[in-house]
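User: For my dataset I need records formatted as: sequence, then structure tokens, nothing else. Please produce one.
Assistant:
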Amino acid sequence: MSERKPSALAAHLVFIAAVTVAAFFVRFYFFPYASADYYQFLHGWFMELKACGGLAAIGHNIGDYMPPYFYLLALLTYIPAPDIVLIKMLSFAGDIIMACFTMRIVQRKGKKFQGELAYAIILFLPSVVLNSAVWGQCDSIYTAALLACVYYIMEDRQYAAITAFSIAFVFKLQTVFLAPFILLMLLKHKIQWRSILVFPAVYVVSILPAALMGRNFGELMTVYFRQAHEYTDICMNLPNLAAWFPEQMSQTAGAVFAICGILLSLAAVLLLRRLNFQLTDSSIATLALFSVIFVPYFLPHMHERYFYPADILSVIFAFYFPAKFYVPIITVFSSTVVVCGFLFSMNLINLKLLSIMMLFCLILVGASIVALARRQKENTEVQPND
């Protein structure tokens, strides 16, 4: 991105500041709302950290999250403010970082003001506001890191990309939704295999403070293995394929479903690898979106907020393909409906209908990848005759 003139830079900063302040006041209105997750998990975690000395308590086995989130909560315990406000402000900080990386990705198109517009859209997406300001979830933190990963891949900064992906992983297991995209980047040689060594290094560094403060190292290495077995319902209100299955299924059937989902994801990667296309910014954004819709769509035990990364990446997709503006409308609408169902018991639309809508989005994004490959092939064939 070219350097801005002083007047343009000032206008940019004023706009970003105004949008951020407005986004804060929208969230401030919802801060008093305490969700079931707040009472069941977040409040107890925060109070235990505070009672045991903040950072001195990071060695305690407090909850089922990875330590980095508890490090951040522990730091917040030193601020004299209600815990519900501090927890939601942490999530709002994630919203801002996520919006910043969205802006930077969109700015790569080179069109004036589109990056700033993308920043504003992200901060006011209903699913984003509900997640941080109402629910108090921290999905924006790991999604911000995923967006950083996509951005650095576009920038050909492979080590920064894998570091960002690794940071996302040590906050949320749902980072694996982007794993097929990363595998494809490796197979397409956009990322070198040696860069993957960053992943275990970041993981170990992330758990080291908790281990040094007394928490069992083996337990820290297996947090996600235990977390994966906490929920047995085949469908956790995400509008995916599982919405069509009986509510009560055996653990064996769920395991078979999960294996099939993983194999489908691998098959999709291999098929995409065979497509002869250049990894331009538009194709990278499309492939990333395809990955974060495809994986949770075909896996069981998915929670209602697991299309959250798809909500954000679909907005980026629409900036690269304005004619397909309805893709983020469908994804964000579906996420908002199911989240409202969980938070407020507002079951407005049948989950199966929403799953059909998300399947339509998945097919559309997949077709966009094929269309991009064909267009690039045609351009390559025409060039020698010019």
